[in-house]
């Protein structure tokens, strides 16, 4: 009897909290993914598409909770403070998981210290867009007007530190023009005002820019990808037509609050790997101008390393380009 009791108590001590839940019955209830931008933007669209496929693999509901504001840092703060129980995650991205620590001095979280990486999403390049009625028909037209009229061009963005803000800041700094940035709670509302003629231009990710470009609601002047994309026929890379080497993509990933059981992270990553075996799903993303990555790049450890490296890189980029909270 004593031997049996000793074995059970040893097992109880060796099983870390949450591992049993993760191994046997997780997820028992709906999971929440926090998206720190307004609904209808590229991050929201990417998150919903991936959540839909992962949900099928888990046979469990994944709820998308939009928590917009301050370039995504409000939602990221909410996620960092959530219980590490496997039921709340952050859809992170280049802005609030790499640029924000440099842009927001009193950030309430640390992207590396306060989160465990779960898996990386594919990347999205961006498209320089103007309204359909805009007089600008090329990147050079826009730059020429900007040089002759400092501050007159207004660019919408999804908040300080969003990709739309960062890329516009890099573009204007390297093109030698001054613009007026106008911040929204996400690229969705920012794009609506571009289509409505309230702003002159914006950088939007390919997955949400494509339908509006095809529909003639906006005009694409240039791509931030290394090369042209078949989804945007006749549109050259900005690096080829105006600013040599100009190339940025938004990267994304799913993150858990630090201390989430490793078994939970493995369960989610395995479900994502199975979802990526569905060629219909991956083809649908490619057709939206989303750039699929090598399989190993999606892994938790790869995302953790990428997050650390990007934080260091964007600190330098922001310093050199003089990007600020404006
Ligand atoms: C951005 O970085 O601009 C975001 O992707 C905007 C969004 O997803 O709403």
Tell me what the structure shows.
It holds the Pfam family TctC. It comes from Bordetella genomosp. 2. Keywords: Isomerase, Signal. One of its GO terms (molecular function) is isomerase activity. This is 3-carboxy-cis,cis-muconate cycloisomerase. The termini are far apart. The chain has helices at residues 2-14, 19-25, 42-58, 73-80, 94-103, 139-148, 163-175, 187-195, 206-214, 238-241, 262-276, 279-287, 300-321; strands spanning 31-35, 62-66, 88-93, 115-120, 124-131, 154-157, 180-183, 201-205, 218-223, 249-250, 252-257. It has 2 domains: 31-123 and 250-321, Bordetella uptake gene, domain 1 (D-Maltodextrin-Binding Protein, domain 2), CATH 3.40.190.150; 125-240, 3-Layer(aba) Sandwich (D-Maltodextrin-Binding Protein, domain 2). It is an alpha/beta fold and 326 residues long. Helix 3 (42-58) packs across helix 11. Strands 5, 6, 7, 8, 9 and 10 form a 6-stranded mixed sheet that branches. A 5-stranded mixed sheet has the order 2-1-3-11-4, with helices on both faces. The protein is built from 13 helices and 11 strands. The structure holds D-malate.
